[in-house]
Amino acid sequence: MSTSTTPWLEFLAAQGARLSASTSPEVLGFQDEANAANIVVPLTHLGLIAATGEEAASFLHNQLTNDVQSLGSSGARLAGYCTPKGRLLATMLIWKSADAILLQLPREIQAAVQKRLQMFILRAKAKLADVSDSQVALGLAGPDVAAALAPWFPDVPAAAYGVTHQAAGTLIRMPDAGGAARFQWIAPLETAQQAWPQLVRNLRPAATSAWRALDIQAGIPLVVQATQEQFVPQMINFEVLGGVNFRKGCYPGQEIVARSQYLGKLKRRMLPAQVAASGVLAGTEVFASSDPDQPCGQIVNAEAIGDRTLCLVELKTAVLEQGDDIRLGSASGPVLDIGTLPYELIDPT
Asked: Where residue 170 sits, what CATH number does that domain have?
């Protein structure tokens, strides 16, 4: 498999980053692997679509699970893109700049999602462009991150999904993970290159996997290529996270998503877990001890931390109520240690 390179990846390599060999390389780590409470992570696994034009908001409003019409410049939102059957093709973070609406989603599915959205523009006055290589995403986490950002962002957003715009780019407050504040800085390429040496004097540069592990700790799912069309939004708690607006107009799959919400208790939910295994992949099925022949769910996201793997796992709620062991891959696989979400699940009444 050939490796794609960009000016940003070349810059990171010159700064000591070890990159994966793939068509969408990500940072595997840096030369200095010492642990630190404050980190900066190049989010090279995420791509960015810019929607422009006077009808961009109304077009996206009719395609995504969340309200795009009322999206202001001071807040970001999660949103999903579904098939007509209500299954998620993508989950994304959306926000508004002075001249565009930005959609951030995994690079591995970005091109296909953008192509599909493009098919439905028709006569709408809207354009979609891939701006992943000109707008760099950095993830920053830790107790001292706000101070490290002060030269570019004197005031940082106080609440999750708050957004601040400065000449240096856009700063988005992400949900905390493990008690640590988290931010995404979306910066023009040249700004990111200029800021990097100063940032790494105060923050440890870390692998892409470190940020994904924090997302798992925060209970935030990311639909990837292996899990496209596997989940109705509620199966991965997406409505609890604010990614679905049930008062807006139609979008692909809206009837099924609404029906799932209002026809009683939800039968599938997502929970965090740990497992003593490595190489765990999104989409891997899990099994309950009481029904070894049929999977009771699947891995949504997974990241290895030492000899264990942190997971988000989608499960039938019935197996949790029965107290069954949940095992990875087969009924004889390693047991998943089911954890507690950092937010409360509220079933529709």
From this structure: 3.30.1360.120
60-92 burial by CB neighbour count: b if 16+ within 10 A, else e? Answer: bbbbbbbbbeebeeebbbbbbbbeeebbbbbbb
- What order do you get walking across the sheet with 39-42 strand by strand? 163-166, 169-177, 180-188, 135-141, 39-42, 204-205
Neighbours of 48 (CB within 10 A): 24
| Nearest by Cα to 223 from 45, 88, 116 | 88
What pLDDT is stored for residue 1 in this prediction? 41
Domain of 309, in residue numbers:
268-338
Site of tokens 């292996």: 226
CB 273 within 8 A of CB 338: yes
2 vs 22: CA distance, rounded Å: 6
Residue 119 lies in a domain: yes
Read off φ and ψ for residue 102, nearest 5 degrees.
-105, 140
CB 224 within 8 A of CB 108: yes
pTM: 0.95
Do 213 and 274 reside in the same domain of the chain? no
Q: Are 311 and 216 in contact (CB under 8 A)?
A: yes
230: in domain: no
**Contact indicator for 94, 68 with CB cutoff of 8 Å:** yes
* Signed CA dihedral, 206, 19, 17, 184: sign only: negative
User: In this structure, are 88 and 209 located in the same domain?
Assistant: yes
Question: CA-CA distance, 283 to 6, in Å (whole number)?
Answer: 29
Over residues 24-48, mean pLDDT: 88
Q: Strand pairing of 39-42 and 204-205?
A: parallel
In a domain, 254, yes or no: no
Average confidence (pLDDT) over 92-115 = 97
| pLDDT higher than 60, residue 256 | yes
Q: Are 170 and 84 in contact (CB under 8 A)?
A: no
Q: Which amino acid is at 290?
A: S
| Residue 95 to residue 172: CA distance in whole angstroms | 9
pLDDT exceeds 70 at position 272 = yes
Domain membership flag for residue 137: yes
Which DSSP category does 64 fall into?
B
